[in-house]
Amino acid sequence: MKTGVAYHDVRNPVHVRADLEDMVAHHCNFVVHTFSEADLIFYRRAMKEIVKASHDLGLEVYLDPWAVGGIFGGEALSRFVAEHLADRQVFADGTSVAAACMNSGNFRSFMKRWIEAAAEIGSDIVFWDEPRFFVRDLRAGASGRQWACCCPACRERFEAGCGRAMPGEMDAEVIAFREATLVDFFSELCEYTRACGMKNALCVLPQEDSRRGVSDWEALVAIPSLDIFGTDPYWAFWGQPLEPYLREKTRKAKALAEKYGRELQMWVLAFLIQEGREDEVARAAEIFYEEGVRNIAAWSYGGGGWTYARSQNPEKVWEKLGEVFGKLRAISV
């Protein structure tokens, strides 16, 4: 039984050590460390020490390209998109947006350097977190002519493949092109990650919606060098009922994971939890377990950490999560 949390709180190895010990005390056996562009540039030595401390305490380590290039989940800012304007995604209305284009050769090379750094500091697994094309409002998705990517490189590829100019409105061919781009991008990165000695884990947004993420999970799950697949059905964030929503998404993800021989990983919402709803965190983990999931993660350590996403009673959220992790690991022996 694998249980773990994401961590993005501090970069002082002395203070991180205490938090790692707290994770172990709360029955975690893996940790997902965020590894943003700022970490890559300024804190690589500290991150290497943090990864070593995690391993010393018996924790398996995932590294997450937190908001790298503006295409992954996370609140960090991207220096790449600030410095490489020609490699940014472009909306159909011509607006350049703060996310790198996945068809950019420069960005793919940058991501390979990120992978090399993750391997150098000792990661076991790379965690590809909610990859997507840029949208201004994740809950609303893309709309009208505000969808990406319509940069020159994408327009050229689309015209070569489809025999017509890229249209201003998102149609079936545009959707297929976008999703093929995601598959091609991650196939290249996953293969390179394997070559660098690490495994690949992918978490997709829970909506099978081409305007937010992808409408076809299967094409991503089928990537040969993918090891772990899952999703994060954050019921309260999306305004969904806990039990039916989690069971539906888990069963869909499980069927695909089993079809392609991937390990299934499901994510518990442990941030932005309102006062009085802390028991839902524990119940979510129990539902995953009941559905056969044996790799359960939570975002994030301590009930939301220090960001705007902190729960109203983060200490209680963390207490409930530790209790249910301990319970599930005990009964799975």
Short overview:
This protein is of the alpha/beta class. Helices cover 44% and strands 15% of the residues. The termini are close together.
Plain-language structure description:
The protein has 333 residues and is α/β, with parallel strands linked by helices. The chain has 12 helices and 10 strands. The protein has an 8-stranded parallel beta barrel, surrounded by 5 helices. It has a two-stranded antiparallel sheet with strand order 4-5. The chain is globular. The mean pLDDT is 96.
Cα distance, first to last residue?
8 Å
Radius of gyration: 19 Å
Q: What characteristic shape results from the CA principal axes? A: globular
Helix content: 40-55%
Strand order of the largest sheet: 1-2-3-6-7-8-9-10
Largest sheet composition: 8 strands, parallel, barrel
N-to-C order of helices and strands: EHEHHEHEEHEHHEHEHHEHEH
Q: What is the mean predicted local confidence, pLDDT?
A: 96
What key attributes describe this structure?
333 residues; alpha/beta; eight-stranded parallel β-barrel; two-stranded antiparallel sheet; 12 helices; globular
What's the SSE blueprint?
Blueprint (H helix, E strand, L loop, with lengths): L1 E6 L5 H13 L4 E5 L2 H6 L1 H13 L3 E5 L14 H5 L4 E3 L5 E5 L4 H16 L4 E5 L22 H11 L9 H24 L3 E6 L12 H5 L6 E4 L3 H4 L3 H19 L2 E7 L9 H12 L4 E5 L14 H18 L2
Parallel strand pairs: 1-2, 1-10, 2-3, 3-6, 6-7, 7-8, 8-9, 9-10
Antiparallel strand pairs: 4-5
Helix pairs in contact: 1-3, 5-7, 10-11, 11-12
